[in-house]
Amino acid sequence: MPDQIHIQLMGHFAICINEVRVDHLVEKSRKGAALMQILLLNHGEGVPNIKLMSSLWSEENSTNPENALKTLVSRVRSLLNQVHPELGSCIVAERGSYRWKCLPDMTVDVYEIEQLLEQLQQDTVEEPARTQMFGRLMTLFAGDLLLDSEQNDWALPVATTLHNRYLTVVYRQVERLKQAEDYDSVITVCRKALEVDNLDDQLHIELMNALIKTERNNEAMLQYKYVTHLYYHYLGVRPSDNMQEFYTQIVNSGKTLDLNLESIRSELLESSEKQGAFICEYMVFKEIYNLQMRNLERLGSTMFLGVIMISNMDGSIMDPIQQDNIMQGLIEILRQNLRKGDTVSRFSPTIVALLLPMVNYRTGRMVMERVKTHFYRQYPNCSVAFNYRIGPLASEEKETQRAE
After folding, report:
1. DSSP secondary structure of 132-201
2. 49 is in which domain, residue-wise?
3. What does the pLDDT average to over 373-391?
4. Are 198 and 228 in contact (CB under 8 A)?
5. Considering the entire predicted model, what is its pTM?
6. At what angle do helices 129-140 and 109-120 cross, to 10 degrees?
7. Residue 279 maps to a domain
8. Pairing, β 20-21 against β 384-392
9. Is 266 within a domain?
């Protein structure tokens, strides 16, 4: 029985013989591995020597690139033959080019993935074959093409195309599962697909919606908080409006028509015992703002809006991890040092918004200066600028005052 040779290009590069990984020799040569990858991705078509030289030595000045390519091919063939006696023959020389020729019983994950994507994008495939094919796709798509490989700029167009085609098929499968009201499978699919693209809004929203449909509201809330942290911490941006609006849906889905007097009284008592400012998601902050505006119009009173922004002293872009840590610390300072009736929310990666009832310009500035003092006391050696602005939501005075 011939050996089963499998080559993996998704996520990381690997060569397996009879399910045992054997590519340690090839990995010693980065250019050798890159040569194999380029040839494999051309599906047996010849790759001109000039294209190979351009891809493999794009940032190097080789005095004799043709000879360097011949030497590399010879070395890689030798390494492959040490892995398997017939593997070196897969690199075939043709006039002015090289190509990859698969051995019998050799499989390449990208080839099978492309075939599955093509079939799954057609509506002619019926169940249960579609489900089986989709499951196979999810197993093979272990990550984006050559994600862990170096010198793979030439692979980016192919990787992007595969990534987008994969997500399109996942979205279609999720829609099919939703129509069948199979929300447990939606959860499984979304979580698996998020391992490939952890910043896809649609996948996160579909996952949270499926968690709500299966009455797993706490998991939906944890997922929302995780996504929010992901965007702030690693990207330094605020989640999309669609993502933020989903917060209200999660909260509303957890409400019941429980009219038991004792349970309501206990919940209100627990809420009243919490000290400090109220910290909330921005969608809740907007609702509180709208409610307060209606009260201001009815009562003719004033509430002040405060905004705090942090930035590097020299104006450079702040490291996302440092930025997130400082913002979390700032929010905790606000919670501890503002009153119970004050409301705080993170408006953007570097901006916090505050609603301050029962203050005027003088007392409002005093509040902000006190927070500023506590901030620099907690971060005495940081080169971060603490800037704030405060102004009324409803007042005859139209100007705002700014302090830096």
Report:
1. HHHHHHHHH--SSBTTT-SS-GGGHHHHHHHHHHHHHHHHHHHHHHHHTT-HHHHHHHHHHHHTT-TT-H
2. 5-108
3. 89
4. no
5. 0.70
6. 140
7. yes
8. unpaired
9. no
